[in-house]
Amino acid sequence: MRVLILGATGAAGLLLIQEALLASHTVVVYARAPEKLPEETKNDPRVTIHKGQLDDREALSSAIMGVDAVLSALGPSVSRGPMHPKGTPLARAYALIIELMRGHRVHRLLALGTPSIKDPNDKSSLRMSIIVNGVATLARTAYEDVVAIGETIRTQGNDLAWTIVRVPILSGANDKRFVVGYVGDGTTGIWLARAGFASFVVQELENNEWVKKAPLITLP
Fold this sequence. Notes:
By secondary structure, this protein is an alpha/beta fold. It is built from 7 helices and 10 strands. The protein has helices at about 10-20, 40, 55-65, 90-105, 125-140, 140-155, 195-205, and strands spanning about 1-5, 25-30, 45-50, 70, 110-115, 160-165, 170, 180, 190-195, 215-220. The strands form 3 sheets. Strands 3-2-1-4-5-6 form a 6-stranded parallel β-sheet, sandwiched between helices. A two-stranded parallel sheet has the order 7-9. The two termini are about 30 Å apart.
């Protein structure tokens, strides 16, 4: 498949590029600062790079045209969490992405989320509640944007085959293991390596087992 990767210059996005290429997909990268990409990625003939902002309709439309799916690692920066801009800019970007996907007849969207996005299948979990409430308190604007991302995808993307890939605390470990479930189900935990996120997304792209669902992906 030909896939568009958003958030590609971040730690999770770079791993997503690698995982997609390993699975024999061709990759389109849309990034504000593509110069941050590794040289091997910039020089890979299987990778096409578009430069632009998330609110640049024309540039974003050009990147989406002709792809089979959109894989997004977009999310608030952990380091800038308390300083995340007001006004839910990422959720507004998703509204545009969904509109352009519809216009170009691209139906598959896999998007990064967190347990701040609630799901009816979630159960009570003290550990996860502490984490989510901590984010809501210390990084309120980031929390509000993530929640709005979930609402935007679920309401405006109702005709798309979307999956919100909710992740807990992310680490940089080179560990592709993961389990899939929901908060408090007795299986999932509170940690995941970014490599596990990338691995799940590319597998789900091929398997389509969690369409119109928002599973929690964690280490076993």
